[in-house]
Amino acid sequence: MSELRTPENDAPKPSVTASAKPSYPVTESVQQALTISLRGVDELLPQADWLQKLARSEATGVPLRIKLGLDPTAPDIHIGHTVVLNKMRQLQDLGHQVIFLIGDFTSMIGDPSGRNATRPPLTPEQIKHNAETYYAQASLVLDPARTEIRYNSEWSDPLGARGMIQLAAKYTVARMMERDDFTKRFAAQTPISVHEFLYPLMQGYDSVALKSDLELGGTDQKFNLLMGRHLQQEYGQEPQCILTMPLLEGLDGVEKMSKSKNNYIAITEPPNSMFAKVLSISDILMWKWFTLLSFKSLDEIAALKREVEAGRNPKDAKVMLAKEITTRFHSAAAAEAAEADFNNRARGGIPDEMPELSVGGAPMGIGGLLKVAGLVASNGEGLRMVEQGGVRIDGVAISDKGLKVEAGTYVLQVGKRKFARVTLS
């Protein structure tokens, strides 16, 4: 029976023992690279190995291979996803090779990480649709000229049943059950499908195929990242280091940023909305966002924090962050315009740009009109917003929940940031 082989068709090589590894000098620039690597991270394991990889790269001039795998489970990326992308960009700027891996094969399995149930697998059509937009959005953070794009179907599809069985023999069920989510589901007698064990194995094999030196992921991916280290050793490769980034709290400052919790900022969001949402976060959360999302140095952030502690308005710092993030995903001009728009709204003004639509049905109840305009999720929510004093028509606060709006064109406002120009007939 033939042995499983890497995409490059290399036969497995003997493991290199620790004593046989040459030691490279740790220069000041290598130490600086380590400092940049550690910025904002949750864990970097093993740190000593990463330091030697950095030293080897400097001594030999060979860039390290930095891997990030993303399953295209949705077509859009929010700024919580860019925490890891920012770290990739920092490592790119140190001269290393970034590999943006789209998990088109693993998406068809479904990753159960951090869940108490299996994530439904995607169809090939869904995967193709989502993958088409992923890299274009990630390129707003990464340098496309120094990014290698790969799809794990390149080496996963050719494995076949024989290769999958050989790969599965590299890991035990007991070790697999050490994964926290599997342990909890087993204890709760929640079903675990056999195919779910294949997900971490396939993600780990990606590291073998790509010969990665470092793999990045969120804290919920630690088990899968360590699987890559294990499998690389099984195939005679130098094991990768792993770097986990903390999950970014969303606008509420409590839950991790998530579309399902509606506490996110999409990186394709209009600049005015993006700017205003950044300004809505708490003064405490702002500093974590600075560390994880800003490209300012840690010294610059520390100096800014000292100024705020000494009496400077924290809003000044938040405006800097909002403008930096808006500029990154749009432009400096768009960020300036977004700041002007925000200030105009703060003074009670109406923004120049807003959604516009025409609807029939006049006269229409205020709750229904707000729903049709897309400003609230339901008629009931619209009426609650009226009751709370959060609704304006042409700048005038509305307090009558029974209001019937006659035909005409109106600027509707809910809260401070939601506007729509509606022509009702």
TrEMBL record:
'KMSKS' region (motif): residue ranges: 256-260
Positions of short motif 'HIGH' region: 72-81
Residues at which ATP binds: 259
GO biological process, one term: tyrosyl-tRNA aminoacylation
Keyword Nucleus: no
Transmembrane regions: none
GO molecular function annotations of the record: ATP binding; RNA binding; tyrosine-tRNA ligase activity
PROSITE patterns hit by this protein: AA_TRNA_LIGASE_I (PS00178), S4 (PS50889)
Stretches for region Disordered: 1-24
InterPro entries to which the protein is assigned, alphabetical: aa-tRNA-synth_I_CS, aa-tRNA-synth_Ic, Rossmann-like_a/b/a_fold, S4_RNA-bd_sf, Tyr-tRNA-ligase, Tyr-tRNA-ligase_bac-type, Tyr-tRNA-ligase_bac_2
Places the protein is found: Cytoplasm
Reactions performed catalytically: tRNA(Tyr) + L-tyrosine + ATP = L-tyrosyl-tRNA(Tyr) + AMP + diphosphate + H(+)
Record field: compositional bias (Basic and acidic residues): 1-11
PANTHER family for this protein: TYROSINE--TRNA LIGASE (PTHR11766:SF1), TYROSYL-TRNA SYNTHETASE (PTHR11766)
Function: Catalyzes the attachment of tyrosine to tRNA(Tyr) in a two-step reaction: tyrosine is first activated by ATP to form Tyr-AMP and then transferred to the acceptor end of tRNA(Tyr).
Protein name according to UniProt: Tyrosine--tRNA ligase
Gene source species: Roseateles oligotrophus
Gene: tyrS
